UniProtKB/TrEMBL annotation:
Family indicated by similarity: Belongs to the esterase D family.
Cell cycle found in the keyword field: no
Molecular functions per Gene Ontology: hydrolase activity, acting on ester bonds
Keywords recorded for this protein, A-Z: Hydrolase, Signal, TPR repeat
Domain of life, per lineage: Bacteria
Name under which the protein is recorded: Esterase
PROSITE patterns membership: TPR (PS50005)
Natural source organism: Aquimarina muelleri
InterPro entries, sorted: AB_hydrolase_fold, Esterase-like, Siderophore_Hydrolase_D, TPR-like_helical_dom_sf, TPR_rpt
First and last residue of the signal peptide: 1-18
């Protein structure tokens, strides 16, 4: 009896721990006067949103019911891998999908018109996004001015339509297997006619296509891709960026996940600094100190482009690592990691890297001081690699002890 009671208590205890929720976001509701209805939103906020004062770019996600979870996972993983900055995701649940995501088109086949039912509300949906949803999100959350829209299938069709009609509404478009079997008037009239001022075009447009073989959808997607590339190649002064990434191994549904993952990577590709790994490459920049200046300048400029701060920490850490590997440039690694710490005083990695630089030039006490600060900081987080920071402290203390013992 006592044994059964003991086992029961263990199971109750385990059950209590097992009920801790894993939360990836929350829901909210906005009433739209334009659409005359309530709209359900799914909101993903960066992990440290509540403890930071940063602003974040926003991705507006169509067809949120299907795409919210994997989009949030992609955003979190890509940030962890230092491929993109942290972002806010605003998922928009559908009410009348066909209505909202299709423009009115006199050239639509009567059979498709009958099949789709209530259509032609894209202009109203654009007005809802621009005049109601975006102001609401910007007033509720700490948002940067950089805005992305992701649309899949009819959502991709909506992306194309909104880009041609209001290209300035979003900074970047992730357009996933767009349903271009649906006719959009005038989009093939020529980019030069529709966008006569190429120097003012600075959007990023990423488009994918799954294993679509029926109708004229594939042909229209490929034609649109060619129009983008011709416009960019012809107008060297444009800031427009475009990438077409066919995914023939994916179905119309499965293409959503890799499209958002690689689309986000492409959008923020300019935030990835080109690394100078060799002594020759570093000296070609004017030496280590000039290389530091170049990184700081680059990220100041790219931050202006995107409209929010893009961290230079990863690039400075890479430069410091590279200098440590070059014997006669090794002391300059301390300068790099000092600059990194000055720019990122709340980063435990900044202290850890500075400790490593001091250790590599034999200044063991300074190395220990920085390693200990890093350990104390990381222990206040949920970083699962905290033991590595503890190991750094233990190793440097052993080095200092061995050095002291040798003197005696």
């Amino acid at each position: 009896m006592k044994f059964n009671l003991f086992i029961g208590l263990i199971l109750i205890s385990l059950s209590t721990y097992a009920q801790e929720p894993i939360t990836i976001g929350h829901t909210a509701t906005i009433h739209s006067q334009i659409l005359d209805e309530d709209r359900l939103l799914e909101i993903y906020l960066p992990k440290d949103y509540d403890t930071s004062n940063k602003t974040y770019p926003v991705m507006y996600l169509l067809d949120s019911f299907l795409n919210f979870r994997h989009a949030a996972a992609s955003a979190e993983f890509l940030y962890f891998d230092q491929r993109i900055p942290e972002i806010i995701i605003v998922g928009i649940r559908n009410t009348h999908r066909n209505r909202d995501l299709t423009p009115e088109s006199p050239n639509l086949d009567p059979k498709n018109r009958e099949r789709l039912g209530n259509i032609g509300g894209a202009d109203n949906f654009i007005a809802f996004l621009e005049n109601e949803l975006m102001p609401h999100i910007e007033n509720t959350y700490r948002t940067a001015p950089y805005k992305i829209i992701s649309g899949h299938s009819l959502g991709g069709l909506f992306n194309v339509y909104s880009f041609f009609k209001h290209p300035e509404l979003f900074n970047a478009y992730i357009t996933i297997s767009p349903s271009l079997w649906y006719p959009i008037d005038n989009i093939f009239n020529g980019f030069d006619t529709i966008f006569p001022n190429p120097s003012k075009m600075n959007q990023t447009f990423y488009m994918t296509l799954a294993n679509e073989i029926s109708g004229n959808m594939r042909g229209n997607v490929i034609k649109l891709s060619g129009d983008f590339e011709n416009y960019i190649n012809t107008n060297k002064d444009t800031g427009l960026r475009f990438k077409y990434n066919p995914m023939p191994e994916e179905s119309h549904l499965s293409v959503g996940l890799p499209s958002i993952f690689f689309g986000l990577r492409y959008i923020f590709e300019p935030t990835q600094y080109k690394r100078s790994k060799t002594k020759a490459a570093i000296m070609a920049q004017g030496g280590p100190k000039k290389a530091i200046e170049n990184i700081v300048t680059y990220f100041n400029e790219v931050s202006k482009t995107y409209g929010f701060e893009i961290s230079n920490e990863s690039a400075l850490i890479d430069l410091g690592y590279d200098l440590i590997k070059i014997e006669d440039l090794k002391p300059y690694a301390v300068d790099v990691f000092k600059a990194n710490l000055e720019a990122h005083p709340d980063s435990y990695d900044a202290y850890s890297m500075l400790g490593m630089a001091y250790e590599n030039i034999g200044e063991l006490q300074k190395a220990k001081d920085n390693y200990k600060i890093a350990l104390n900081m990381v222990m206040k987080t949920d970083n699962f690699e905290w033991e590595a920071y503890k190991t750094d402290v233990d190793k440097i203390e052993n080095k200092i002890k061995a050095k002291t013992d040798n003197k005696h």
